[in-house]
Amino acid sequence: MSRPLAFAGSPIDRADHIRADPDRLAALMDWRARLLKLDGLDPVLSPEGTLEWGTLADAAPDSDLVFLGLAAGKACFAEVPARQGGSTGPANPRLWAAMAALDPGELATYGGARSLVDWHARHRFCAQCGSATRLAKGGWQRTCTNDDCKADHFPRVDPVTIMLVEHQGNLLLGRQPRFPPRRFSALAGFVEPGESIEDAVAREIMEEAGVVVRDVTYVASQPWPFPSSLMIGCHSHADRAELTIDTTELDEARWFTRAEVELAMTGSEDAAFIAPPPHAVAHHLLKWWLEQ
Q1: CB 252 within 8 Å of CB 174
Q2: What does the buried/exposed string (b/e) look like for 67-97 if buried means 16 or more CB atoms within 10 Å of the residue's CB?
Q3: Among 35, 49, 149, 197, which one has the highest count of C-beta atoms within 10 angstroms of its own C-beta?
Q4: Contact between residue 81 and residue 88 where contact means Cβ atoms under 8 Å apart
Q5: Residue 67 DSSP symbol
């Protein structure tokens, strides 16, 4: 990739050797520690358009604090909201505006913190016995408080394949019902239990567009904190162009020529479609394809 992917490349050292040591972690929770300020799950920006940081004194009494890691020698934390708040997805225009103001490193820091505190806010009870859980390992684990259970739970990441399909120099793109008018993007879907990445790519394309693909290759991945996915970008080839579209998943799917993709990526009003936004890995996949 010729440019950093959004939400990837955080400059924070996650310092597993510290979060696994309660005494060392407690020693870092002093006046020098930094607290990432969040409005629910949304970032709080300084007047300069950077992430706003405070001290641990800014946290609510008895709130759960997750250890994000070390930056410039200082311990960095984020507070788990008392209840779910803030925007739940990337469709919020205010959230997009805030994210656009952040440099790549800060955006990655925010994305990781958002996924982590959101997981804690939604996993306060044990999935095994239903008892309350408590934060452990600096926030990278929750442990059941039931002495007869004591199950450990860990922040989850959901793998999602997002893939380009090529046939005789043309590219298959689709429109989901939630997309803005005229926007097309790469087809995508969650990896299911028992599947490899290649299996998931082939199944999703067959299910959504009725196309058999071969020669699946990996291109790039992107953490996507809405709420906590790993987008796995792939490329594949199809031998036939006929489509059978699953209208419960897609409003439309069609093949686009290289010239049409090039025009869309310039943002031209005369383009056949609107390309995915720069924050999305699909945008980078299209750019990668044009550069090959």
Answers
A1: yes
A2: bbbebeeebbbbbbbeeeebbeeeeeeebee
A3: 35
A4: no
A5: E
Residues 6 or more apart whose CB falls under 8 angstroms from that of 147 comprise none
Helices (H) and strands (E) in the chain, counts: 7, 15
Rounded distance between C-alpha atoms, residue 137 and residue 141, angstroms: 6
Do residues 276 and 183 touch, judged by C-beta distance below 8 A? yes
Q: Do residues 31 and 55 touch, judged by C-beta distance below 8 A?
A: yes
Q: What is the pTM of this model?
A: 0.93
pLDDT band at 81; cut points 50, 70, 90? confident
Q: Which amino acid is at 140?
A: W
* Residue type at position 129: C
Peptide bond into 22 cis (omega under 30): no
Q: Are 288 and 275 in contact (CB under 8 A)?
A: no
Could you tell me the domains of the chain? 16-122 (no CATH), 158-291 (3.90.79.10)
Q: How are the residues of the chain apportioned to helix, strand and coil, as percentages rounded to the nearest 5?
A: 25, 30, 45
Coil, helix or strand at residue 240: coil
pLDDT of residue 90: 60
